[in-house]
Amino acid sequence: MSVDRVRDRLVLLGSKGGPAVRLGGPWPSSSLLELGRRTIVVDCGLGVTRAFVDAGVGLKALDLIFITHLHSDHVLELGPLIHTAWTAGLASPVSVFGPPGTGHYWRRFCQAMEFDIEIRIADEGRPDIRELVSVVEFGEGKVIEDYGLKVTALRVDHPPVTDCFALRFEQGGKSVVFSADTAFFPPLAGFARGADILVHEAMLEQGIERLVAKTGNGARLREHLLASHSFATDAGRIATDAGVKRLVLNHLIPADDPEIGEADWIAAVRKTWSGDLTIARDGLVVGLSCAEAAVGEETA
Ligand SMILES: [Zn+2]
Ligand SMILES: [Zn+2]
Questions:
Q1: N or C terminus of the chain: which is more exposed, having fewer CB within 10 Å?
Q2: CA of 68 to the centre of ligand 1 (A)
Q3: CA distance 212 to 219
Q4: pLDDT tens-digit map of 232-278
Q5: What spacing in Å lies between the alpha carbon of 86 and ligand 1's midpoint?
């Protein structure tokens, strides 16, 4: 086993679904994937910068960033992550891959921060952040094939957002698939076929009603959740059909209901999935190097 292999890991930086944050609760969606020598961030919800640093990775290592869709719980901190890395000394190029509209976000972010960017270039002699970063907008199919890393995208079912993409990362015989936000979507099983890890979003039925009761616009929220997201049992079904080695339930809804714990998630997903299982928590590490040492936490 090479040294590179040992480093391969997935870190769930932010594990909740939706943009709200509450005292003591988990943070919105972002993940760190270290595969081969690449440092890959998938989604940039609020808190990604802090969580990235807490995962023990220096900000100057920022390399590839992928955005599954432009809902704020997946993109709100994209600009601040790159900008903070830049002020921390980032001098190597960063590539951002996202759906149509990602370039618009980045240009407008740089405009909003123009005063600070210009003054740091002039005063501190920093490289121009606008030249360090390239944005590639992708659709379904191959996204990149680069130094042995292959990334492909599958459009999933997340109305009313049409440009929402599951992502499959393959490198050196290892593969990790992210479902992105999606309602139960059977083609995901083919897309995730045989993956080492499937990170799938999940809702828990019994928590939805309490969540809906807590918010001001309950009926509309319930309608959106049911049309656009998957239950834990749906995620289990996809994992079983795909024959993946491990299922990670992520983007949890609800994420901070004191009456819902890990045991409830496990009980739900065990109806449809009997393989290795991880219920996401902020900062949880899932190893990719060898099955026995694979898990930050074995939950089943
Ligand atoms: Zn989301
Ligand atoms: Zn979404």
A1: N
A2: 9
A3: 7
A4: 999 999 999 999 999 999 999 999 898 999 999 999 999 999 999 99
A5: 27
Q: What is the DSSP letter of 254?
A: S
- The C-alpha R_g of the chain, in whole angstroms, comes to 19
Q: How far apart are CA 40 and CA 55, in angstroms?
A: 13
CB atoms within 10 A of CB 235: 30
Residues 6+ apart with CB under 8 A from 128: 117, 121
Cα–Cα–Cα angle for 22, 257, 274, nearest 5°? 125
Report how far residue 267's alpha carbon sits from residue 117's, in angstroms, rounded to the nearest whole number. 50
Q: At what angle do helices 205-214 and 262-269 cross, to 10 degrees?
A: 130
Q: Which residue has the tokens 């065990």?
A: 270
Q: Which structure tokens are listed for 91? A: 């001098």
Q: How far, in Å, from the CA of 181 to the mean position of ligand 2?
A: 5
CA–CA distance from 246 to each of 67, 249, 294 (Å)?
Answer: 23, 10, 10
